[in-house]
Write a structure and sequence with these properties.
The complex is a heterodimer.
Chain A lengths: L2 H17 L2 H6 L3 E7 L2 E5 L2 H6 L1 E14 L3 E11 L12 E4 L7 E3 L1 E7 L2 E12 L9 E13 L1
Antiparallel strand pairs in A: 1-3, 3-8, 4-7, 4-9, 5-6, 5-8
Chain B lengths: L1 H21 L5 E12 L2 E7 L9 H6 L1 E13 L3 E7 L13 E2 L5 H4 E5 L12 E6 L8 E10 L3 E3 L9 E6 L2
Antiparallel strand pairs in B: 2-3, 3-8, 4-7, 4-10, 5-9, 6-8
Classes of the chains: A alpha+beta, B alpha+beta.
Chain lengths: 152, 175
């Protein structure tokens, strides 16, 4: 066997070892995400909310995840409805809490939580920034939040 | 040369296989929820009520007016709003002694005159005092509205001794 053949065989063996089965077990991410409670959350504005400039809704929605790799859950927000005469509200009015950084809220969504392989249940905090609503007359303001779990 | 080509093809296949396998990292899962905010945008509170009722002085008689004082209301609103204040709305508490007599078209309601924020007084006969297009107060302590009250004795043709009561109804309205 020539030296070229030996080098080729070594490279081929390397690739196949890398592909099967160890590499496959490490990269085949299996991720699930379920909103187990708080699928529909509602709140009403109070006088204190107006003075604070925001409505806080803490821990209303619970998410259960399973993952066999390091993971992260991110949220994205869309605004579905608002009353006529409102001053151009956007999805940025709804802020989603970052559980990795308590007290931090991200306008329009963002990182919710990260973790290691396993099964976990955690809640999500929301905050509605009244200042971003502009003129905010009476009525319902509807938001939909999509949570996505990804391998890190 | 043939061996070299075989080797290159094998390398290419290996690289492509690695690349395809890496695509499995894009596995994701999603879920959704919704948040609904119900906004009743406006709140009015009495911060400082009218003080002790004054007694009529001789100077008041000469002037034809008795200044009662002011009350302060606070308006919190997420929306642009308007404020109106009227006397005797509903007619439940605005009153004068039973033997009081009024000029034509006048009443205890028109005798109770109000203003906003030290502005001009409005005769209750003319219509309610109002503030229009007030800015939203989100993120602040609310806006104070000072309501002044005076009794106009010229509305009476006979104002005997007794208690004269003025009811002020203040309404803040957002669309």
């Amino acid at each position: 066997m020539s030296s070229w053949m030996r080098v080729g065989l070594i490279i081929i063996i390397f690739f196949f070892l890398a592909l099967f089965p160890v590499h496959d077990a490490q990269t085949q991410a299996s991720l699930t995400l379920t909103v187990t409670s708080g699928q529909s959350v509602s709140a009403s504005v109070t006088k204190a909310d107006v003075e604070a400039g925001r409505v806080e809704i803490l821990n209303p929605t619970v998410i259960e995840i399973t993952a066999n790799v390091n993971w992260q859950v991110v949220a994205s927000v869309v605004i579905d409805s608002f009353p006529a005469g409102t001053g151009n509200p956007t999805a940025l009015a709804l802020e989603v809490g970052n559980n990795d950084q308590p007290g931090q809220f991200n306008a329009g969504g963002g990182l919710v939580q990260t973790g290691v392989p396993g099964s976990f249940t955690f809640s999500v905090d929301f905050r509605i920034n009244l200042l971003t609503l502009g003129n905010a007359p009476a009525g319902n303001y509807g938001f939909t939040i999509t949570y996505t779990i990804q391998a890190q | 040369m043939r061996k070299f080509k075989v080797l290159a093809v094998l390398l290419l296949v290996g690289v492509l296989a690695l690349g395809l396998n890496t695509l499995s990292l894009a596995t994701t899962a999603t879920g959704t929820s919704s948040v609904t905010l119900t906004n009743a945008p406006i709140f009015v509170t009495v911060t400082t009520p009218f003080g002790t009722a004054p007694s009529v002085t001789s100077a008041d008689v000469v002037a034809g007016l008795t200044t009662v004082g002011t009350a302060t209301f606070t308006v919190d609103s997420t929306a642009i709003y308007a404020v109106t204040a009227v006397t005797n709305a509903g007619g439940t508490t605005t009153a004068a002694p039973g033997t009081a007599a009024f000029g034509v078209g006048d009443s205890a309601a028109s005798a109770c005159q109000i203003n906003f924020n030290a502005g001009a007084f409005a005769n209750g006969d003319v219509g309610p005092t109002s503030l229009t297009a007030q800015p939203a107060t989100s993120g602040g302590a609310g806006t104070a509205v000072v309501v002044g009250l005076q009794i106009d004795w010229t509305q009476y043709t006979d104002a005997p001794s007794g208690s004269y009561i003025c009811q002020i109804d203040l309404t803040a309205t957002a669309p």
